[in-house]
Amino acid sequence: MKLYPFPNVDKKPILEWDDVIDDEDEPLSLDCEEFAYPFPVCNYTEGIDGANIGYTQGYICGNIPFEAELFTNDLNEVVLSVVLPWIEELDPQPETIVRNGDKSIGCKKGSVIGMITEKESYDNSVLTIGMVDYGQCENVDVMIAYNNLLEETAIITFKGQLRNGTLFYRTDCRGNDFVQILITLKDADRLLATTPLDFKNFY
């Protein structure tokens, strides 16, 4: 099991998007007595406009909580933003259940032939507004590890063998460390990935 320490820092328009949702999973209530990490303190009211499709909360295997949102940007992309706790030890073979709202989602795996990591120039996400921003992760291994975690727990399913993602370091108002992962689900021409998560409106 490889260790990925949190970086040593001095702390300081609507598109057609329905096809990115895959809702074939069976319902199961969200029920967890104790989480392995704290939930992030997220923003649900500031900076919201028509580009912000919705948000959701849930937990993945090992009772690891997450929050996610779906937004569009000026590049005609639909982007999934997922906020996860900083996990120093990433298990390469997580359990098979993700719970989100009333869903139980089984794990899926696939072969990867390429990974695209680049800074999102048009980031319309709002959940992390108010968090301390420590910048983008430059370690491709860390990005791949988190990307694999999201894919292996079926939060995302890529349509081909090419993966994409960008990871940022965040700390919330309680001093807890998180990562924000941005994954492009759809660009102007192609459906790149889908998610089974249920999103509710910000307002």
Task: Give a verbal description of the structure.
The chain is mostly beta strands. The chain contains one helix and twelve strands, in the order βββββββαβββββ. It has one helix at residues 140-152; strands at 52-60, 64-72, 78-85, 97-100, 103-106, 114-116, 132-136, 157-158, 162-164, 166-171, 177-186, 193-194. The strands form three sheets. The chain has an eight-stranded antiparallel sheet with strand order 5-4-1-2-3-11-10-7, covered by helices on one side. A two-stranded parallel ribbon has the order 6-9. The chain has a two-stranded antiparallel ribbon with strand order 8-12. A hairpin with a 3-residue loop joins strand 1 and strand 2 (64-72). Mean pLDDT is 78; it is low at 11-15, 25-32, 92-100 and 102-113.
- The span between the termini is 42 Å
For the biggest sheet, the summary is:
8 strands, antiparallel
List the secondary-structure elements in sequence, H or E. Answer: EEEEEEEHEEEEE
Uncertain residue ranges = 11-15, 25-32, 92-100, 102-113
The number of helical elements comes to 1
Q: How many E strands?
A: 12
Strand order of the largest sheet: 5-4-1-2-3-11-10-7
